[in-house]
């Protein structure tokens, strides 16, 4: 366990919330792998670095995906602290614990005959800002596999589905008038609020699945009005909708368009992750988690947010979120549970050795 912990401590010290330092983190990972006898390839797209490293030469490919970039943090969060079985620091859980475990697993796997299996480590630098320069690029370039594990912190559980993302703005026009005579104008803010409540009542908003109770609808921003004594004639509202795997974003947009005369403009879209729990690789991983992790049950669940899994799903490659235990990621008290690091690494090694069986 100490080797993973030492590596994780070094990784946390990189303030990889910036592109420059995230790239430096990739360079450090390449140097660490080289010292352990593993060659790697560094790929650059739009200034963002990615690392690809392979062990084994088989036809069955398992992809281990990790991101070294983090959200911004306070200065002290980049000095890791160990207390009561936890390691604290920005990125400790999300997701440098998974990255460190992957790297040590790759070191150990290089000395094992994997038969018809190739394990490919992919490390990227822009997951926290959307993944367009790295995971999206890699998958478009054919860096795919038979199964993908993204080491997001899942408490040694499996996030096998994920909601899609639909972010958009609606621009409303009204008519200005004196604030003392609002009936002579048309209040654009009031129009926007009416549409918000209509959206909550649309058919898509009331749908559910066996995994998800409903889509997530976040009324994220509103901008309108200038002064107290004037009826606002413009208003811009913004939404972040995470839609269900069985829903279609074009249908959702059509429903919204039917209840507004405002102008809709898209900011960000991303497909959902639609794996079935019956997938043989997922079932096999569950068995390895039970055996290696000494668990009677494995939590299998859907994710409300999104990860780089969605880029592999575009190509019908089953991709899941599965990582070590931790908490408060993106928060001031972010931590990873140290004991879970070795367990996670051992599960990855066991699963990799038997991937083709």
Automatic annotation (TrEMBL):
Keywords carried by this UniProt record: Hydrolase, Metal-binding
Superkingdom, natural source: Bacteria
A Gene Ontology BP annotation from the UniProt entry: L-arginine biosynthetic process
Cited Gene3D superfamilies: 3.30.70.360, Zn peptidases
A Pfam short name: Peptidase_M20
A GO term, aspect molecular function: metal ion binding
Key word Metal-binding present: yes
Chain ranges of the Peptidase M20 dimerisation domain: 162-259
Cross-referenced SUPFAM superfamilies: Bacterial exopeptidase dimerisation domain, Zn-dependent exopeptidases
Designated name of the protein: M20 family peptidase
Organism: Staphylococcus shinii
Lineage: Bacteria, Bacillati, Bacillota, Bacilli, Bacillales
